[in-house]
Amino acid sequence: MTNPEQSTIKAIEALGPLGAKLNAESDDLNQIITTISEKLAALNLGIPVWTEGDEEPGTARFGFAKVHEGGNSFWALATRLYYDGEPYQKEVPLTKVSRDLRICGLQEVPGIIDMLKCEAERRLDAIAKARKLAAEI
To answer: Whose CA is closest to 96, among 72, 77, 73, 83?
Structure first.
């Protein structure tokens, strides 16, 4: 065997422990997503939010929204996958997409939480203004 072949074999062998660790850590992804979704849903905000992004084919946006699945609906971290500029699936629970998309979605959680806060404050402000207007009429 030549030296480049040996180094390639060693490099592939070195991936073994990384693969095992990645798979073990990935097993926890759905539980992490479920825990965050349940905590956000328990707040009963009723506010859907989505990350900004392109709606180009092959892209995904992440958010927190009411998901309809199997005759049930529930609030959860979710994704929208785009095909030809249109969502080709409605809101899909983040727990039901590929590992790579779940990891990308989890990276967006702090921004999703910030958007929920901003939207809740905006709605409260609108209600306060309407209440004040109603009192003045």
So the answer is: 77
